[in-house]
Fold:
Amino acid sequence: MDSFIAWVGGKKLLRKEIVNRFPEDGFKKYVEVFGGAGWVLFYKEKHAEKEVYNDINSELVNLFKNVKFHPEAVAKELELTLSAREIFEKYKAADVRQMTEIQRAARYLYLIKLSYGATVRSFGCRARNAVDMESLQRVKSRLDGVLIENKSFAKLIPAQDGAGTLFYCDPPYHNTEKYYDTGEDGFGEEMHIFLRDTLKGIKGKFILSYNDDEFIRELYKDFVIEEVERSDNLKMAMGEKGSRYKELIIRNY
Ligand SMILES: C[S@@+](CC[C@H](N)C(=O)[O-])C[C@H]1O[C@@H](n2cnc3c(N)ncnc32)[C@H](O)[C@@H]1O
Structure:
């Protein structure tokens, strides 16, 4: 199934390539470390044992939790809300500390749906519904049994590691970190190195997606690196026909 939201760096176009490379001999626990919109989680088969969705962005995680437990209440909050720049700016400037979790979830859903490129930063100038109740209900049942976490990868990976764990990691791509709220530690080169070092020491398996970049290739030279190519939607939209975009899928198995 599809995710209920678009997200910067969302893996709608790469999800099949990733799932096709999951370990053939299976795994007991699936952990999506940099969850975002969860395109891979929603695409893969529901795992019988344990699944974890995680992201450092607390507004996004609060949205996932409230869609899991109270989708009707989130939808009701947005029932009479129009698609308008004034409302977008008001929501953007709102003090979330003064809101309930459901109000916060509704606010963030509105900002994602109506922003340009799902960046949550500027109004997308397109009239569109923030709520699709059918899709929220599907997501609610898919998230049944999924543990939703709000941690940095540095804490999540050691806490969830084990011989039967598969980690899917989709960190901010090298040099695109500024598009995300990355918490107080940010996501500079030292974080990419720290992620590699953390993954190097795990007992479980990992599969990782990244942009094709010399720094990343050097960082993961001891692992299996595969290059995958897809059409570059952004350049195609700007009239550059046949533009291709290269990504890397990296594994420790
Ligand atoms: C490329 S996006 C993931 C997209 C996701 N795979 C999808 O299909 O929608 C990267 C995500 O990493 C999250 N992130 C950034 N720094 C993080 C950290 N230190 N620990 C965990 N998540 C982090 C961002 O909030 C963002 O949602």
